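Problem 3 from the worked examples.
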Amino acid sequence: MWSVWRTVLEENEKLAQARLAAVEIFQQQIADDAKILKNHKLQGAKKCLDQLAVIQKELQVCVQDVDKTKKLYFDEEHSAHGVRDKARDIEEKLKKKKGGFFTSITSLQKNSAKYSTKREQLDEKSTGARNDYLLCLAAANAHQNRYFLVDMQLCMNSMESGVFDKVAEYLSLMGRTELLTCSAWQNSFTNIRDQAKQLTREYNIQCCYLYYPVLKQHIQYPFESCDNDPVETITAEHDSAAATLSKEARRWATRIARENNVIRESVKKLQIYNALRESGQKVDPNDQNGPDLETKMEEMKQNIRKAETAKAKAEARIEALRDGGVNVDEWLQEAESLNVQDIQRSASSLSDHPSSDSFYDSDFADGETVTVQPPQVEKQQDKDSVGSQQDQFENAEVDGEWGRQRMSSCTVTERDVGVEVDELSDWLGKMALWHHLFFKDVVIFSMASRL
């Protein structure tokens, strides 16, 4: 996982460098050059506009000459046309030799000669005006061709200043650079994807164990013998030890059954709380003033965890007792057959502990509930010398049982309060055993005095 993450960082650094290189290319070869191109274009446009104004002024003068010659041509042609019509009428009259009432043939001949001369003069002027008009018209058309085909194109090319070629080059460079950058991105993330596909949880855990060996140190505590003691398992060589181990077997079998019941109840409540949460509830409808569902669900999870831990510890004790030859299956079957009330009643009533300072005394340091009862079978001793001792022992057991009954009436189902009750019950059991030993010593002393 760390290797892939390092690859991600390295590839991101490479991509950042590639992007910086692309930005530098854009800055130097596009942005800076575009500014120069813009200034050059503005200068060229100003110069071309000045030249274009001069050219258009020259074209305007040429067009004005055309208008002048055209006007002169129209005037001369109109005058010549009028004289031409009158001369034609006079000639027709002379051909017909027909004069007017006040006009003679001689006057017609004079007028005919006069209009003929005038017609020739006007025709000559009209022809000259027409020729001038045609020449100016040809020159104007040639000027227009020159303007649109040469001068205008040169001006437009000068105003462009290679803008189209430069912009095309900029766009081409931009596209090529972006393609290279995107190709680098694709290669980098393809590499990251391929490495990510090879990730496995087992491999990463092994790497984590390699870097942090303490995580893999599964601590197991071995038995440390004292003075080369060869025994490493639980033994029941003595009658008292057998009875005590039988108590322990019943105690932890009952504990397993009780923890199983706690787990079942907690799982059931957890499912109910989860269903309420999925339905949109925030708190338990049956406990509006209580904590919210999340708190209760977390509490149930912790109860399950604690119960599973306690169950595992109890099962380990049962296995240790089984390895020592103790008949634990009988107590396990009996504990499984008990109902919930029987388990709670048994847990609150079993409180005896061994009187010796053995490892059994340390079993109650973790606050676990006491679940042992007095042994069912005990080996009888000398009846003659222990008759009164048995009476005293029964009295001590009655006192201890009376205390346990009082404590069982105060037992509640909550774990924390149950721990305190168990501790107090343990104390009462020890007091009963002390009471028994005290009276035992008194009886022995009295018997010795009689002897």
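Problem 4, a separate protein:
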Amino acid sequence: MRYYCCGTLLILDQNETGLAIFRSFDWNDGLFDVTWSENNEHVLVTCGGDGSLQLWDTAKATGPLQVYKEHAQEVYSVDWSQTRGEQLVVSGSWDQTVKVWDPTVGKSLCTFRGHESVIYSTIWSPHMPGCFASASGDQTLRIWDMKATGVRIVIPAHQAEVLSCDWCKYNENLLVTGAVDCSLRGWDLRNVRQPVFELLGHTYAIRRVKFSPFHASVLASCSYDFTVRKSSCIPEDCSLQHSQSKPSISLMVFFHLLKYSKLYDSGTFQSLTLFLKQWSIIQSLLVV
């Protein structure tokens, strides 16, 4: 039996029998986030506790291909632009800066400053080229534009650290945030004076929130309360369902892009299936 600790990147392959480890890479510090290239199925970028980003090719057994080291502290978030013409990566760090990178260039293209605490989450808009959002320990959600010299919008999103944010794939003005105050809040960029919805139910800080790529009103969240929860974020009818408690903390939750019924929990690598607002655990990670 093999055990994996901080500093390991796992490439998982889903087949008829479940999830299997296709390849693993080791790094000399903890790895906090990962994002796939939008134009090369084998290429991805990770970020780590040593302030660096690493470029990997999963078709090669060794790596990384390149290391980008500019942040002064841990890099906690990394995201590859979904606009195929851009090929840009955005990173957020505990040094309170956001950097934008072209993976073909050995240095960052630009640095954005303004947050007053550590940055936990950065994500590109799937609609507007050059536009991205960031969430921070300074309790704000911020919207940035590469064409602008500074931040476009500052939203006092919570009265606690904001750990995660995501953009709705079906509405260019709608984002969601998750925070230490255990709440999820939706924000319409056309009017940010108050949230368009708020979801309660988690009992500890929310680590990650993701909109469904298939349904505009569906999102999933994972928390330090050991649960993964499915939410309906329609402002008129907000509701929240949850899975059973797990013996490990879920640090990430992500939807299967090919099978709309699949949702994965990184705490246990269990596959969760959605059945009319209910959850069913159907399989576990193969341990080798």
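Solution to problem 4. The first strand starts at residue 8 and ends at 15. The domain at 8-156 is CATH 2.130.10.10 (Methylamine Dehydrogenase; Chain H).
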